[in-house]
Write a structure and sequence with these properties.
The protein is about 25% helix and about 30% strand. The protein is an alpha+beta fold. It is rod-shaped, with a radius of gyration of 43 Å. It starts with a helix and ends in an 18-residue tail after the last strand.
Length: about 250
């Protein structure tokens, strides 16, 4: 009995001297926390931690999404030279995607003929690789000439629903223009040297080699632009590459 009384007394003294003061200290601490509104600081810190974590998540997600390449158009993949698990540099060319149901042709048109060409104009396009002529339509005419060639770029669309046309094939485009009188010579008469065009004229039994510009063409003729040629001049069509100015020549029937 005495032992129980002593234990109760010790507990009482403990609560009286320490427990009450401890509770009071805790109360005063929380009261100061409330009066100072320190909880707002905790919320701000939590919000900042959240925004930082969100930014890190989005950055990681973008890095992950970049591992998959998705094209903005559908079509056929071409020009791809990649191996499985191959390391790829950041700016490495991967492949091309083409929609080959509609192909296009680009050509340069001289300034004197561009006024005869308009969007929607029907054209005939010959494809030597497949020995076939297909129908095309002008869909774009560049209003500014190329500063080097001085020609205007014309773009023509070709229907390729049967898939017979392939990227990289060459073509010969025939665009009808308004009739006009021009000087023309057989195509075999034109010599190309160092990317320049020349023809050889027969003048009084001698050869005269002159530089010319070529314009429009037909199946067998080139339009010739030169102030040194007149209608009726005789043009050399065989052996002209061997001629120099002043060489003696004669007409062969």
């Amino acid at each position: 009995m005495t032992s129980s009384f002593q234990e109760a007394k010790v507990r009482y003294e403990s609560l009286k001297n320490g427990g009450v003061r401890e509770k009071e200290a805790t109360y005063l601490l929380y009261k100061k926390y409330k009066d100072d509104q320190s909880w707002k600081y905790d919320i701000s810190m939590s919000e900042a931690d959240y925004q930082l974590s969100l930014a890190e998540f989005n950055a990681s997600k973008e890095d992950y999404d970049d591992l998959r390449v998705k094209a903005k158009i559908s079509g056929l993949i071409t020009d791809m030279d990649l191996d499985l698990y191959q390391y790829i540099d950041e700016k490495k060319f991967l492949f091309s995607i083409i929609d080959d149901s509609l192909m296009k042709v680009e050509m340069g048109v001289p300034g004197e003929d561009i006024s005869n060409i308009s969007i929607g104009k029907e054209t005939a396009v010959y494809i030597p690789d497949i020995s076939r002529t297909v129908s095309g339509k002008v869909y774009e005419v560049n209003p500014s000439a190329n500063p080097v060639t001085k020609k205007f770029t014309v773009k023509i669309s070709l229907d390729n629903s049967d898939g017979i046309l392939k990227k990289g094939m060459y073509s010969e485009v025939r665009l009808q223009s308004n009739p006009k009188n021009v000087l023309a010579v057989p195509k075999e008469a034109v010599m190309v040297k160092d990317l320049l065009s020349y023809i050889a004229l027969a003048k009084d039994g001698e050869a005269k080699v002159i530089r010319v510009e070529t314009g429009m063409e037909s199946d067998s003729l080139y339009e010739i632009i030169s102030s040194e040629i007149s209608p009726g001049d005789m043009v050399v069509v065989q052996g002209q590459y061997l001629l120099e100015n002043g060489d003696s020549i004669r007409e062969v029937e």
